[in-house]
Amino acid sequence: MALQWAILTWVVAAEAAVVLLLTFPFFPRFLKSQLVSLTSLVLQPAASLLFFAAFQLLDLYWKNEHRLMCTSDICTSEERTRYEKSMFKAQRNAILCASACLLYWCIYRICNYHKEIKELEAAEKRLKEN
Question: Which one, of 28, 46, 27, 26, lies nearest residue 38 by Cα?
Answer without folding.
Answer: 46
